Amino acid sequence: MLINAVIFDMDGVLTDSMKYHIESWNYAFNQFEIFPSKKDFALLEGMSYKETIEFICNKYNVLLNQNEKDKIYLIKKNKLSEIFHFEIYPEIPSFLKFLKKQNLQLAVVSGAHKEFVDNIINKFFKEDFEIIITGDDVQKGKPNPEPYLKAIEKLGHPIDKLIVIENAPLGIQSAKEANLQTFALTTTLDKEHLKKADKIFSSHKELIEYFEELTGQNKTSP
Length: 222
Prior knowledge:
Elements: E1 5-8, H1 18-30, H2 38-44, H3 49-59, H4 66-83, H5 92-101, E2 105-109, H6 114-124, E3 131-133, H7 146-155, E4 162-166, H8 169-177, E5 181-185, E6 199-201, H9 204-220
């Protein structure tokens, strides 16, 4: 299969960071006597912070006013700043270098705020990604297809020449509704939650080996 570009989610794909988001979300909700599970936030990854707060409040039958909801997000943001430690998956730097050697364009589509995404990109991936879409760049975040549709538009390649790498159900849904071929990594959730992906990989190593075969086909395709 001939491909022209690869689109990456960030948390759980490029960076081992979901554990910090989950801890900070739990801490913030706990201040209001709301006790979500870790799995709640893993399943909601990619959703905007406003939608995340609304979802958790609805699930746990809690009524909060807008000021309280704003406080939850502020507490979450401050806690994340306090505990966050930059960790990229060890296989990622060489994987990105390999893909760039194949003359593939690389993009990031993340539901996180632009400031957060830019900090990570500038620290670890400054020369790697041509297109970066953040939660601040769209009106509707994942699972809506808008983030990936915006990436498609900016990349300028046919949809069937693009591959998305995700790790969360809402991200997979977003990409699939944009008609993109989507691969999933089991970094934060089991395969049972990732069934809508076209292919599921149990590790970055397995994913990279597949791409090595794929790009070999790339070279021999007419």
